[in-house]
Model the fold of this input.
Amino acid sequence: MALIDLANPTRFLRLVNAVLPWLAAATAILFAIGLYRAVGAPDDYQQGATVKIMFLHVPAAWLGMMGWGLMSVAALGTLVWRHPLADVAGKAAAPIGAAFTFICLVTGSLWGRPTWGTYWVWDARLTSMLVLLLLYLGVLALYWTAEDPGRGARAAAILSLVGAVNLPIIKFSVDWWNTLHQPASILRTGGSAIDPSILTPLLIMAAAFTCLFFTLHLAVMRNEILRRRVRTMQLMEAQRFAEAGA
Amino acid sequence: MSLGPHADFIIASYALTAFVIAAMVAWVVLDYSAQRRVLGELEERGVGRRARNEGQS
Done:
């Protein structure tokens, strides 16, 4: 099957129905292993047991950013190629990305209180992550409030592309500005600065969160395709009633 | 396993994450069954079938 064949929603639904149970099973297995390893991970020499919050916070941050990256690529598909599934993919990613960004911000606050002594500071990393959440809410508002779904989709796609500017700001904020948030300790030149006893469960949890993201994304895309079918059929039915009444 | 003096923060983080994930899963599952139900009702009334037949004629 060529990639372009997936542009057909019926073929895409068939693929989703086949893939989804396997992806959901992989998510459950990875979470079981990840949580087992997270519980058994040693305390950090500085953070103590609060390092366990990192097993949630770091993957949620990555996926919050990845969700926006996915929406930006989908936005190109909507605006440039008018790919039939691009808008569906972008719209489906928005609530999931927003949820992961929300998890990242709240778990970060809960980690910050015992470690930094405060729930929140207006530091560049925290603020740019909050901006990401607000951008997600903006895109969701555009989708939910637009009377014409096509116009709402185009407006959301433009905001998705403009908002992509925030992604490098989040990533490099800890290098560009003097922040309370620590610099990159996993994805950095010279390798990870984290001990394998903590890095391994963190990476397994990241894999579990990533599988969860794609499981939810495919499921929400499937729902959105069905919703559009329902809308089309309801419009057809209304038109038939109108013609019969005329 | 001891979570030390900051156990409340750790438990709250895991509880919140579990709640958000459970809410997302519930929303997806309920939305799926709702769309399937409405689609089934419309097909039962012959909306899709009639349109297809009209398209073929």
Remarks:
- Residues 42 and 48 of chain B are 7 Å apart (CA to CA).
- Chain B is about 85% helix and 0% strand.
